[in-house]
């Protein structure tokens, strides 16, 4: 029996395969450290073979995606001055191939398939953590917290955030229907419990903010584009003023205190200071992609010891911009920030201009979550992470939308001469 290629690569017909591939990818991103190379091969196995079926439609024109690959290309270039060239080269290859898989995904699945696959993937990841997870003692604040099957409660909280956001998007934005309600409902319950169990202040605050943002933008969608812009600008001004007043009245300390944190964010402010000092050593080019946290390097060993990281791995500066500055300098940070800000503003413009655009609403929710978390995590700059996978899908969607609009505009221009001749 022969299976049509469309079942794998045509977005409107590969819903089952696409959702399964996304769910598997999420599980690999979560637990590749546990299952090793075989899980990474499984991730590549669901995306890269699609190129062999129809490379033109699966990959498209690489030049259109050049702005997406810019940061990854610079990571390759940083190998030439990295003190750990072999580490940087391997990481750069992994990161670039990871982005290629994200591009294949965005070109072969619809936003509905992505949403369903992400919802299912988060459910499986969180269920596994609840079944086989454990508690972790944090020597910095002297508390125990549930980390699931991860090494950090923040990662558990991140997947819980994604589970809630994609569940809401599937039912209220994409409107997947009643058949999807049990899956969305189950994922919502798993995500809410995991978010509570993790006690991750970052995840709880960002999740609530993003869900409120989605609901607010849905209400804005009922107005005309001009009214949307006016209401959004007014809301933005009021929000900035409100946040400024709240911070001045000590709201930040109150919120942190509710989660058992202090103003140092469990040592993160000291870690940021150390990262800034490290970035000053090579402010333009950086030390090299993933060339700082290397075993045997004095500064890395010192920080691992100070923060009780016995594994001497999986640690970072807990800030995307500081980490990027340390590894790739100002050039790398500019390239990564360009992609991040372009994606954020691009999808926001679609929401404020288009009559109805559920795709941009989901993508804007994802990029907003990644943007907020970028100040305390590094979700988008390493391979085999759910954050970087979604980040490049979000960015690539803008390129596909621009191409689709240019085609729609060019079609009437071909018809007009024929209509003029017929009338004459």
Write a structural description.
- The chain has one domain (6-407).
- Mean pLDDT is 87; it is low at 413-424.
- Strands 1-2 form a two-stranded antiparallel sheet.
- It is mainly α and 424 residues long.
- The protein has 18 helices and two strands.
What topology, given as strand order, has the largest sheet? 1-2
Main β-sheet: number of strands, strand sense, barrel status?
A: 2 strands, antiparallel
Mean of all residue-level pLDDT scores: 87
**In angstroms, what is the radius of gyration?**
22 Å
SS strand fraction: under 5%
- Tally of extended strands? 2
Number of helices: 18
Q: Indicate how many domains the architecture comprises.
A: 1
Terminus-to-terminus distance: 55 Å
Q: Tell me the series of helices and strands, N- to C-terminal.
A: HHHHHHHHEEHHHHHHHHHH
Helix content: over 70%
How is the topology of this model organized?
Blueprint: H1 6-9, H2 15-35, H3 37-47, H4 50-53, H5 55-59, H6 66-77, H7 85-108, H8 111-132, E1 134-138, E2 143-148, H9 153-173, H10 181-198, H11 201-220, H12 225-248, H13 251-258, H14 268-279, H15 298-306, H16 320-353, H17 358-373, H18 386-423
Antiparallel strand pairs: 1-2
């Amino acid at each position: 029996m022969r299976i049509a290629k469309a079942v794998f690569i045509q977005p409107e017909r590969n819903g089952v395969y696409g959702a399964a591939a996304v769910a598997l990818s999420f599980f690999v991103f979560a637990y590749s450290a546990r299952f090793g190379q075989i899980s990474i091969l499984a991730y590549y196995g669901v995306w890269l073979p699609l190129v062999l079926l129809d490379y033109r439609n699966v990959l498209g024109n690489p030049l259109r995606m050049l702005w997406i690959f810019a940061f990854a290309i610079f990571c390759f270039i940083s190998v030439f001055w990295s003190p750990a060239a072999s580490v940087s080269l391997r990481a750069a290859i992994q990161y670039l191939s990871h982005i290629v898989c994200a591009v294949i995904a965005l070109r072969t699945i619809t936003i509905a398939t992505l949403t369903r696959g992400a919802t299912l993937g988060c459910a499986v990841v969180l269920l596994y953590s609840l079944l086989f997870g454990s508690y972790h003692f944090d020597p910095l604040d002297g508390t125990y917290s549930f980390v699931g099957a991860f090494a950090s409660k923040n990662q558990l909280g991140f997947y819980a955030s994604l589970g809630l956001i994609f569940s809401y998007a599937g039912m209220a934005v994409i409107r997947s229907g009643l058949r999807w309600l049990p899956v969305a409902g189950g994922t919502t319950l798993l995500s809410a419990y995991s978010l509570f169990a993790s006690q991750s202040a970052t995840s709880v605050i960002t999740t609530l903010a993003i869900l409120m943002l989605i609901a607010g933008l849905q209400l804005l969608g009922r107005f005309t584009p001009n009214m949307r812009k006016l209401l959004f600008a007014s809301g933005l001004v009021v929000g900035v003023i409100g946040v400024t007043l709240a911070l001045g009245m000590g709201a930040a300390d109150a919120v942190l205190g509710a989660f058992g944190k202090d103003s140092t964010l469990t040592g993160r402010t000291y870690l940021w200071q150390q990262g800034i000092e490290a970035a000053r050593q090579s402010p333009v080019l950086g030390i090299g992609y993933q060339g700082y946290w290397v075993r045997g390097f004095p500064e890395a060993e010192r920080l691992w010891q100070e923060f009780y990281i016995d594994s001497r791995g999986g640690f970072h500066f807990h800030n995307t911009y500081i980490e990027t500055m340390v590894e790739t300098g100002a050039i790398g940070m500019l390239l990564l920030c360009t992609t991040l800000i372009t994606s954020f503003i691009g999808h926001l413009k679609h929401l404020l201009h288009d009559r109805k655009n559920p795709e941009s609403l989901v993508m804007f929710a994802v990029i907003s979550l990644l943007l907020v978390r970028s100040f305390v995590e590094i979700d988008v700059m390493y391979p085999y992470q759910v954050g970087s996978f979604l980040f490049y899908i979000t960015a690539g969607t803008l390129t596909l939308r621009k191409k689709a609009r240019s085609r729609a505009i060019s079609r009437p221009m071909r018809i007009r001469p024929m209509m003029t001749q017929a009338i004459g």
